[in-house]
């Protein structure tokens, strides 16, 4: 059977959207404009002349997992009916309101061009917001293609001088959802139990690791890649760098998420926290392993030292 070349799983392949100087973009908004201007081809029909390899055996494991292009398209079609609410509910982990299309995208069960073609038929802020998120995924892939070291090395070189603590007991507590901060622990337990974590929670737990526990983001990124079903190297590493303040178009380092504020704003009734931390309010739940206010000041001190 002859080999065939297939295009990468992006609407616009990494390296195609360049600045006037011929380099990759380091800021998302101008990248997004150039990405839209560049455009992409319409989705194509599935090939009909594929030579399938038949697998034979009596000991193949049984599974109830539904996967493949058909289920992915059904999942996407169902979500399209709700996409208008994307902006209003995207940050609420207590609601079952996300598309969860990151898994089909990772495994190539659906192509972003298919999704973009469907979104083009929609109007409103919800569809536009979702399209921006697809563009952000491609922005991360473009950055990693141009800067392969960004998988584990900060894009902003001054952060090489940042003082970090070695991962120890506090890191282990973070990994297993035992920090004493319910919103952080809920996110980490969701990850451990399901291989998935709501996007807002990914930002919250990442900020806590880097800026409350002062552990290098690469250890968190590695833990995520080991456990996320939708783990994608480009999106994972570049989004960790965004939270850590050392990446392209990153959140300022001095933006430190307050776990209590995040919980009150995005899980106002505590539904998500109680779902994953059922022992809340009992003696089985640990006390906070750090004082957030003190940890924040220490994070800012370390940042001032490299400015």
Short description:
Helix content is 48%, strand content 0%.
Give a quick set of tags describing it.
307 residues, mainly alpha, 14 helices
Arithmetic mean of pLDDT: 93
In angstroms, what is the radius of gyration?
21 Å
For the terminal residues, how far apart are their CA atoms?
57 Å
> What does the overall shape look like?
globular
How many helices? The count is 14
Detail the poorly predicted runs.
none
Structural class: mainly alpha
| H/E element sequence | HHHHHHHHHHHHHH
**Beta content:** under 5%
Instruction: Give the biggest beta sheet.
Output: none
Say how many strands there are. Answer: 0
Amount of helix: 40-55%
Polypeptide structure, described:
Helix content is 48%, strand content 0%. The protein has helices at residues 28-38, 69-80, 86-89, 102-106, 112-119, 125-146, 169-175, 182-194, 199-212, 217-227, 233-244, 259-266, 271-276, 292-306. α6 packs across α11 (233-244) and α8 packs across α9 (199-212). The chain is an all-alpha fold and 307 residues long.
Write the layout of secondary structure elements.
Blueprint: H1 28-38, H2 69-80, H3 86-89, H4 102-106, H5 112-119, H6 125-146, H7 169-175, H8 182-194, H9 199-212, H10 217-227, H11 233-244, H12 259-266, H13 271-276, H14 292-306
Helix pairs in contact: 1-6, 6-11, 8-9, 9-11, 10-11
